[in-house]
Amino acid sequence: MNIRVLRDIKARHGVNANEIARRAYLYVARNQTLPPSVRYQAQLQLNNFGRYTRPTTVKNRCSESGKGRGIMSEFALSRFQFRLKALNGELPGVKKASW
Q1: Between vectors from CA 70 to CA 72 and to CA 52, what angle results, nearest 5°?
Q2: CA–CA distance, 15 with 69 (Å, rounded to integer)
Q3: Which residue(s) pair with 77 in the sheet?
């Protein structure tokens, strides 16, 4: 397994584990009706979260090769891996088009 894929899996787990707390702190930090000291404390708490708790660190990657471009998100495969698996009949419900 590719290190990029492992990093992406780690990021996905971190985002899922901390999503509710991050959203709550973001709401407090952006709410302008609250006093500045409360908003500042919420911003400090957001800064204390780790790198892999941010949703922007998650990237769609191919689960086979680890490529980050040309991904079919429904199957988590790159175009080439999707083609190989489809031609071998390893993807249920997918077959080569002919008309």
Answers
A1: 80
A2: 21
A3: 72
Distance of CA 29 to the CA centre of its chain: 23
Surface-to-core class of residue 56, CB atoms within 10 Å of its CB (0-12 exposed, 13-18 middle, 19+ buried): exposed
- Alpha-carbon gap, residue 23 to 84, rounded angstroms: 40
On whether the pTM is more than 0.85, the answer is: no
CB 90 within 8 A of CB 63: no
Contact 88, 47 (CB under 8 A): no
The pLDDT value given to residue 32: 92
Helix (DSSP H) and strand (DSSP E) numbers for the chain: 3, 2
Rg (CA), the chain: 20
- 86: how many CB neighbours lie within 10 A of its CB? 16
Q: Read off the pLDDT of residues 28-86 as tens digits, 9 standing for 90 and up.
A: 999 999 999 999 999 999 999 888 888 888 888 888 888 888 998 888 899 999 999 99
